[in-house]
Amino acid sequence: MPILDAFPDDFELNEETLPRVRAARDQSPGLGDSAALGLHRREVTVPGVDGPDVPCLVYTPRDQQGRLPGYLHIHGGGYIIGNAAGSDAMNLSLASRLGIVIVSVDYRLAPEHPVPAALDDCYAALAWLHNQADELKVDVSRIAIGGESAGGGLAAALAIRARDAGDYPICHQHLTYPMLDDRTGTAEQPGDALTGEFVWTRQSNQYGWRSYLGGAPAPALEAPLPVR
After folding, report:
1. What is the three-class DSSP state of 142?
2. Of the candidates 120, 121, 168, 164, which has an alpha carbon nearest to the alpha carbon of residue 143?
């Protein structure tokens, strides 16, 4: 597979290898057949928070009756790779099987855009989902957020930010192997002896965190787990 070919045995993610990994991800299969699953998929651009507008993919059931739950999906990729299109197959399946409306946010990536860019983009998408609830026929009391890896970390930070702001209620967060702690993979938090030995290594994990946090202090909102 092209993505796996981008990870040789001695692979280490850094400034030199990042463009190659991103290029391999771009070779992944295109968007799936939404109509075959009874869905309508469209690209939208939502107003940004103190920054550029944010592209998103929106999935809605074609035979939608009444208001449905909404789910804001945030893709993974260590904060430095990935896009909303890369999660298309999963979001098609979720929207079809669960009968929900999904908004998948294409947030800005580090290191070109360190904190708070990605979280701002996710907050903008959450705001849009709430503000467009009538058009989307979404029940605002049943809006969930979630994601995988970096997406899970962003979802956790987004839940805290939304709670503190008090503008956009969230009923549930679904965090899949989330990146929550910038100390993961360091001597302070080495983890299991075998964890981080293949493909996504401790070194790659730390590179992702350094790229994402930039000059932000370690206990920033974007690293929501540490209690120091």
Report:
1. strand
2. 168
